[in-house]
Amino acid sequence: MKTVTHWIGGKPYGEGSSTSDTWGPVTDPATGEVTTRVAMAGPDEVDAAVATAKEAYATWRTSSLAQRTAILFRYRELLNARRDDLAALITAEQGKVHADALGEVARGLEIVELACGLGMALKGDTSTDVSADVDVTSVRQPLGVIVGISPFNFPAMISMWMFPMAIACGNTFVHKPSSKAPSASMLLAELAAEAGVPDGVLNIVHGDEIAVNALLDHPDVAAVSFVGSTPVARHVYGRASASGKRVQALGGAKNHMLVLPDADLDAAADAAVTAAYGSAGQRCMAVSVVVAVGSAGDALVPRIAERAAKVKIGPGNDPTSEMGPLVTRAHRDEVAERVAGAAAQGADVVLDGRDFTVAGLENGHWMGITLLDKVSTDSDVYRNEIFGPVLCVLRAETYEEAMEIVNGSPFGNAGSIFTRDGGAARRFQLEVETGMVGVNVPMPVPVGYHSFGGWKDSAFGDHRMYGSEAVHFYTRGKVITSRWPDPAETAAGPDLGFPASR
Ligand code: NAD
User: Fold this and answer.
1) CB–CB of 109/116 below 8 Å?
2) What is the CATH number of the domain that holds 275?
3) Res 215: pLDDT
4) Judging by DSSP bridges, how do beta strands 411-412 and 455-456 pair with one another?
5) d(Cα 384, Cα 365) in Å, to the nearest integer?
6) Which element (helix H / strand E) includes 84?
7) In the annotation, is 284 catalytic?
8) 284 and 429 fall within a common domain
9) Is 228 a pocket residue for ligand 1 (Cβ < 6 Å)?
10) In angstroms, what is the span from residue 466 Cα to ligand 1's centroid?
11) Dist CA 411 CA 468 (whole Å)
12) What keywords are annotated for this sequence in UniProt (predicted)?
């Protein structure tokens, strides 16, 4: 069995150590077999990682931008060369198909590329002669030790949203990946070391809430970037803020796709199937609800069903598979239970994936494509994030009724509209209460130089991931007011008034 240890000070840490005697299992979702044991950190490993990061910060914060940029460019090249290996690690532990895992790596690389050019975003502003002989300069400086806590569903990409930007800004980093899929983060760290990231600048501790809470409480941690489910995001935001840390905590989602009757319904059906069932629905940007307006519903549901029934489900390392298994057996069973509950609460079960299995891999965490129609807003399957291959269709008579449904959701990650009516699309963009919006685009994941984040229960804290918002999150402002008077000037003497410009 493979062993995954922590990564502290530029090397593996923890195997055989007296404090790291707890191990967690990592399962291959396609076979159900435990393939790996992962070290689970307690307060001792957390202390060691934070102390190492703190020590490294003393020199990394003053490293030149040229040096950081050169390292990040080398890192980008190494990652690019190892895309396939990273994708294979993702598939082996998360379950998604290889092509999808490659897409994840590509979107993560976008952020590394953004970090390569961060000098531009870090340059300050200067105003000269704001008063007699007085100049004012605004600069942004790093915070110190940053903690990143990430979920299982993007084992590489979400880490790459966080640490490249944080370290490019001059911080050092302690990452706590999901212990369900820890191996991709280790390859990311090994490649960072190979690229020249100094020892201690990027560290990893694996574990569960014990490790997380020790990080949230640690006095030497300056800020926390979190991505995961809403209950944990709320906990992380509250606990880390309470100890004075800067926090961004992205949570769960229930993304709605509103379809008007004038939309290209074939394109809308393709989009719904892609966005609902890709990665077996285990994406925070997955469309889990279609709100069909007026006549769109009767025309759309059979189109979705026809396409969805053809999706080929199988192990992620089979190049013919389009959708893989769910991450754990427990999660698969929870999703299946939600589907049973939906039928009992009056939904029409158009496609039922509960009995699906793959011959020869019966212990895999399989859940087939599930399509539920005429779902009500008070049913459990609608009110909760399911995070599986389950698409709910709700019907509305009018745009206004549909928007009441969309904006009535406590989640606000992403929302999309499918229509040919520019006026309706514009109205939707302005009215929808989500942080990301798609117009004839089902999963509007912003490119790296914009930024990512939801509203309402989908994100706590006011800074989004990547883009210029990340620069703001990972740095703090300082404004320097300076005056170099002519030495020949006679000193004016003390003046106890509040300084005013002249
Ligand atoms: P999760 O909340 O269970 O875990 C996220 C991280 O928190 C992991 O590192 C985990 O070890 C840790 N954790 C879990 N329980 C904890 C607890 N009680 N106390 C402290 N730490 C704890 O999420 P997950 O199941 O790994 O990932 C799926 C969730 O993440 C979904 O809800 C999905 O919508 C969300 N997600 C959101 C985004 C986004 O950008 N908003 C992106 C990806 C995933």
Assistant:
1) no
2) 3.40.309.10
3) 98
4) antiparallel
5) 21
6) helix 83-94
7) yes
8) yes
9) yes
10) 18
11) 24
12) NAD, Oxidoreductase
Number of folded domains that form the chain:
2
Looking at the structure, tell me whether residues 111 and 13 fall in a common domain.
Answer: yes
The per-residue pLDDT for range 454-469, each reduced to its tens digit, is 999 999 998 999 999 9
Quote the ligand 1 centre to 67 CA distance (angstroms). 34
pLDDT band per the 50, 70, 90 thresholds, residue 18 = very low
Could you tell me if 85 and 233 lie in one domain? yes
Note the pTM of the prediction, 2 decimals.
0.97
Tokens of 57: 């910060």
The protein residue whose alpha carbon is closest to atom 16 in ligand 1 is 209
- Asked whether 463 lines ligand 1 (CB < 6 A), one says no
Task: Beginning with the edge strand found earlier in the chain, give each strand of the sheet holding 6-8 in spatial order.
Answer: 11-13, 6-8, 202-204, 172-176, 145-149, 223-227, 246-250, 459-460
Q: Is 394 in the pocket of ligand 1 (CB under 6 A)?
A: no
Question: pLDDT averaged over the chain?
Answer: 96
Which residues form the domain of 274? Answer: 255-439
Residue ID of nearest Cα to ligand 1 atom 40: 250
Is the CB of residue 387 below 6 angstroms from any atom belonging to ligand 1?
Answer: yes
The answer to whether residues 222 and 317 belong to one domain is no
Could you identify the atom of ligand 1 that is nearest to the CA of residue 233? 2
Residues 157-186 have pLDDT tens digits of 999 999 999 999 999 999 999 999 999 999
Residue 244 has phi, psi (to 5 degrees) of: 85, 15
- Nearest Cα to Cα of residue 151 among 238, 84, 93: 93
23-28: long-range contacts, CB 8 A cutoff, minimum separation 24: 24/179, 24/206, 24/207, 24/208, 26/93, 26/179, 26/180, 26/181, 26/182, 26/183, 27/93, 27/180, 27/328, 27/329, 27/365, 28/92, 28/93, 28/95
Domain boundary pick from 409, 439, 469: 439
Residue ID of nearest Cα to ligand 1 atom 30 = 228
Same domain, 429 and 283: yes
Asked, for residue 485, whether it belongs to a domain, the answer is no
In the prediction, which pLDDT does 20 show? 54
Work out the pLDDT band at 15, boundaries 50, 70, 90.
Answer: low
User: 378 and 286, same structural domain?
Assistant: yes
Same domain, 179 and 280: no
- Based on the fold, state whether residues 246 and 270 are members of the same structural domain: no
In a domain, 492, yes or no: no
Q: Is the pLDDT of residue 16 over 60?
A: no
- Looking at per-residue pLDDT, the higher value among 48 and 14 belongs to 48
Give the distance (Å) from ligand 1 centre to CA of residue 233: 7
Assess if residue 141 is contained within a domain: yes
Q: Is residue 101 part of a domain?
A: yes
- What is the CATH number for 119? 3.40.605.10
